[in-house]
Design goal:
Chain lengths: 333, 289
């Protein structure tokens, strides 16, 4: 006996756009997407009476953005970023500079910090882009540590106290829905992006860089695009967190921002993009529940992470997708 | 004069720290991001054997600490890395996660503050060329040179050492000659971890055992390896002398805070000018994409 997996008839019928004829087929296609969108949008209303958990939703979505950025870089560009905190830190400090020092309102400082931060991150990571992935991992690992040291040593940008006095967002609903909408928008935009021409070339860079080179496309330029997009997501998360806490300090370069997104992607399922969100939605509330454990939480993430990599490397999302699209049966060999 | 003496000491310190990392990478092609964690863990284990359990004699405690670290390294490969061999992304994430788990676990377990100090082997100091140097630093220099000589002889005279070099040069050809690739990798991780442990017990008497030390060690080890050319042994020595002297100079003329900046700048300049590192000739084509 062996197990056989067969696509559901419904899936086969709905694969081509022209085949959709019934409400059931439309529901089959749209159901999971609508569930995610509506569920996420309804979250702040569900937790109306629990203001603490409404705050957790914000952080959760910010981590989801970071996880999305890691997933994109690792599984579509082939660069492992061990320092997601670099992006959040740069984004957060830029937001603080624009908002506090230059007096820009929130709705200008946040997007501006996102873009300038992403440009700066890309510039800093430029030297290691023409090289193999190991170098990128090494350099991204060093940057958050380095920036913490520099800020401490030179006592610039508020030193160890950080920069205070950032403008808050207008109200709790704005805080919630800004990040939720941005997370959803980035998710669906990224899913499109990786199937556009640029995205296809990026994937080719990951799978076989020599062939991309042979086609007369610059690998470095493609990677610059990839890193810039990932940095956009990370810097937005950083700028948002800085405005949320009305504070930008060296804890924006903290280890949490590097390791939780990685764990989220591995748990959620690498390469699916949605998996990154789902992983973050599982891990961040878990980490709030375990708040009493302090730094031991990082140990827990790491153990979960290693366990998933070794024993269940496909992750939750790919598992669910398989169950949704296919059925299994035993057949005689 | 002070610059010269302390520059040499610092350089040998760096090369001791990064030897284990480069050994593992050159043989098994696994970037062992748990290196710094093993360093701290070994120091902590030695401290435990020395103070908490029974109070072993110092030499025995050191031996036990190093051996257990080396077993941990071997176990990491045998039980975890072997399953994800060849998947570069997973290898990096897994070793990084293990390293973090060890470091943050130790921090949670109480490794904080200045209470964790290993005693110097021999207290006191001596004057060399008019600079006072304590005995511990002299031992570090001696042990560092000795380790290099032993490793050199080991890789050229023993069967296991030759197998190491075979796998490092051409894995497939070596496998055809009957060298077990996984076994060699396990051994390489064991020896690499033992080297990290050795570096820890030698260097930690100069300061406290702190978790941050693990991150620093990892960063410096990686910096030295990248500049010397990943997986090149001669490169490690040259690169640690370059970084070692650069660090002492910045410390002397500017400020001690910039040590890590020096390391990172050196990495970036190397990557821009000669990405395969100073001695990374053999694998030059593979580094560039």
């Amino acid at each position: 006996m062996r197990k056989e997996r067969i696509d559901r008839g419904l899936k086969v019928r709905t694969e081509g756009i022209y085949a959709i004829t019934s409400a059931r087929e439309i529901l089959y296609l749209m159901g999971p997407r609508i569930l995610l969108i509506v569920g996420l949008l309804a979250l702040p209303l569900i937790f109306e009476l629990a203001p603490y958990w409404k705050k957790v939703i914000n952080i959760m979505c910010a981590y989801a953005l970071l996880a999305l950025s890691f997933d994109f870089l690792a599984n579509y560009v082939g660069l492992v970023c061990l320092g997601g905190a670099f992006f959040t830190g740069v984004g957060g400090y830029f937001a603080a500079i624009f908002n506090v020092e230059l007096g820009m309102p929130v709705w200008i400082s946040m997007p501006l910090a996102t873009v300038t931060g992403a440009v700066l991150c890309t510039l800093f990571l430029l030297p290691c882009l023409p090289l193999r992935g190991v170098y990128f991992a090494i350099v991204t690992l060093m940057y958050p540590l380095l920036f913490t040291r520099i800020i401490e040593a030179l006592n610039i940008l508020g030193g160890t106290n950080g920069m205070t006095g950032l403008d808050a967002l207008p109200n709790a609903y704005a805080e919630n829905y800004l990040i939720i909408v941005v997370a959803l928008a980035f998710l669906f935009a990224m899913r499109r992006f990786v199937n556009e021409d640029v995205g296809l070339v990026l994937r080719a860079v990951k799978d076989n860089d020599q062939s991309v080179r042979a086609s007369g496309i610059s690998v470095t330029r493609m990677r610059i695009i990839g890193v810039f997009v990932a940095a956009l997501l990370g810097c937005f998360a950083g700028a948002y967190i800085a405005h949320l806490y009305m504070w930008a300090g060296i804890s924006l370069f903290a280890l949490d921002f590097s390791i939780i997104p990685i764990a989220a992607v591995v748990i959620g399922g690498g390469g699916t993009l949605v998996g990154a969100l789902i992983g973050a939605f599982i891990l961040v509330p878990l980490s709030e529940v375990l708040r009493a454990f302090g730094t031991f939480r990082i140990v827990i993430y790491c153990i979960i992470l290693t366990g998933f990599i070794v024993f269940k490397s496909e992750g939750i999302m790919i598992f669910l997708q398989r169950k949704y699209h296919q059925f299994e049966r035993w057949v005689k060999v | 004069m002070e610059l010269l003496v302390y520059g040499i000491i610092n350089s040998i310190t760096l090369s001791l720290v990064s030897l284990g990392f480069t050994l593992v990478y050159s043989i098994s092609r696994v970037p062992n991001f748990a290196h710094g964690a093993l360093y701290v863990a070994s120091g902590y284990l030695t401290w435990l054997f020395l103070n908490e359990f029974m109070g072993f004699p110092y030499l025995l405690a050191i031996l036990l600490g190093v051996i257990i670290t080396s077993l941990v390294g071997a176990a990491i490969y045998q039980f975890i890395l072997v399953r994800i061999r060849g998947m570069e992304i997973s290898e990096i994430i897994a070793t990084y996660a293990i390293g973090l788990a060890i470091l943050e676990g130790l921090r949670w377990g109480g490794l904080r503050g200045g209470t964790f100090v290993l005693p110097a082997f021999f207290p006191g100091s001596v004057s060399i060329l008019g600079v006072s140097v304590d005995y511990q630093r002299l031992i570090i220099v001696g042990a560092g040179i000795l380790t290099f000589i032993i490793l050199y002889l080991f890789t050229r005279l023993t069967k296991v050492g030759l197998a190491f070099r075979g796998i490092a040069q051409d894995e497939r050809a070596a496998m055809m000659l009957g060298i077990n690739s996984d076994m060699t990798a396990v051994l390489s991780l064991a020896i690499g971890s033992a080297l990290a442990g050795l570096a820890a017990v030698l260097l930690l008497p100069l300061g406290n055992i702190v978790v941050e030390g693990g991150y620093n060690v990892l960063v410096f080890a990686v910096a030295v390896c990248v500049i010397g050319g990943l997986g090149s042994w001669g490169g490690v020595i040259v690169a640690s002398f370059i970084i070692g002297f650069a660090q002492i100079m910045t410390e002397y003329f500017i400020s001690a805070h910039y040590q890590m900046v020096v390391a990172l700048l050196a990495i970036i300049i190397t990557l821009l000018v000669k990405p395969s590192g100073i001695f990374g000739k053999q694998k030059e084509l593979e580094e560039r994409v």
